[in-house]
Amino acid sequence: MTKTARMTKFWKVTAMTPLAHKIVRLIEETGPLRISDYFALCLADPEHGYYHSREPFGRSGDFITAPEVSQLFGEMIGVHLVHAWQAQGAPADVRIVEIGPGRGTLMSDALRVIARLAPDLYAGASIHMVETSERLRNVQRQTLVRVKERITWHTAFEEVPEGFTLMVANELFDAVPIRQFVKTPQGFRERVVGVDGTGALVFGLGAGSFDPQLLPLDETRVPDGEIFELSPARSAVMQAVAAKIVRDGGTALAIDYGHLVTGFGDTLQAVYRHEYDPPLARPGEADLTSHVDFQALAEAALAAGAHVHKPMTQGEFLVGLGIVERAGALGAGRDALTQAAIRDAVNRLAGEGEGRMGALFKVLAISGGPVSLAPFDRQAA
């Protein structure tokens, strides 16, 4: 099950997690936490954080990402990278970069396609993986064992060396913390995490003020109870990526679940063993995410001077790159069961509806300058 699953049940919580105890002590000492601070602790606490202590991916983990659904996803990413390279003059010195590479599956599948379609790109490019978890780096070394000597690992995107860059970030931005603001009769107030009389974590509203310029809206027109999500951290990541792309040339691709237009709604969610979980129930043991505002990402890239290609759904992106044709070739001559599995994978990756990723996931591409790039630009070949 992907993170797009419906909330079918809550897992029963029998005891507070070690990180929950740590967070409660922190709140008792310093006061309620912003959602962004709670979010960051849940995922990145060096002792008990989710990505430092658990194996999140696959059937034995908590969710399945698109590269784990089928090799077709990574192959289409490879096709995209070749298109972007060719559209920008096929430079000789290239950095192929993935931020948040998971188990390395996407990069493995993409490189296989690049080697077949563009041998010069494959032979001359350096490969860079931005990964903070040493445990996941070890998994990536196993997945990419055939090319691991060509890979350089980095803890931050800023460490990637200068030069023409082809970058991919799949399900990166949903793991970057957000802030939440709730409309009350007194105006917007920031949502926080506190502790109730029983010692349990609870949501509340902050007492302090904040810069109203943070919220790009007229609060007098917003009904009470509405929640507005904002992520300065996501915008900062995109601006850093865009600044490099503008300076060095190339294209960056971001894929995540979210919305193309800024709006209201509480999208903070936790996923535990392939089911939704209350966000405060299991800190450090459940994945914590929220939907990505692609309009905000595009605005951040534009502010950094990047060329922003028209965002689209994952389904449009994959179909435009030829996933249906590739699936047909992959299934040719195979038994009926294998062909059915391939069709199911395409439907899951590119289709619409419950349990499918094609409409919920969005794709944003930015380039260092104006360039026609398939399938984003209609005039692209």
Short recap of the structure:
The protein has 13 helices and 17 strands. The chain has helices at 18-30, 35-44, 50-53, 66-69, 71-87, 105-117, 119-124, 134-143, 232-248, 294-303, 314-321, 323-331, 336-350, and strands at 33-34, 94-99, 126-130, 151-154, 164-170, 179-184, 187-195, 201-205, 227-230, 250-259, 269-272, 275-277, 287-289, 292-293, 307-308, 312-313, 361-367. The two termini are 35 Å apart.
Q: Tell me, rounded to a whole number, the average pLDDT.
A: 89
Count of individual helical segments: 13
The name of the CATH topology of the domain at 66-176 and 238-258 and 293-364 is Rossmann fold
* Strand element count: 17
* Overall 3D shape: globular
The main sheet comes to:
9 strands, mixed
| Strand proportion | 15-25%
Low-confidence stretches: 1-14
State the oligomer: single chain
The CATH superfamily of the domain at 66-176 and 238-258 and 293-364 is known as Vaccinia Virus protein VP39
Question: Which structural class do the helices and strands define?
Answer: alpha/beta
Distance between the termini: 35 Å
- Going by CATH, the architecture of the domain at 66-176 and 238-258 and 293-364 would be 3-Layer(aba) Sandwich
Helix content estimate: 25-40%
How much is the radius of gyration in Å? 21 Å
Written as H for each helix and E for each strand, in order along the chain, the element string is HEHHHHEHHEHEEEEEEHEEEEEHEEHHHE
CATH class of the domain at 66-176 and 238-258 and 293-364: Alpha Beta
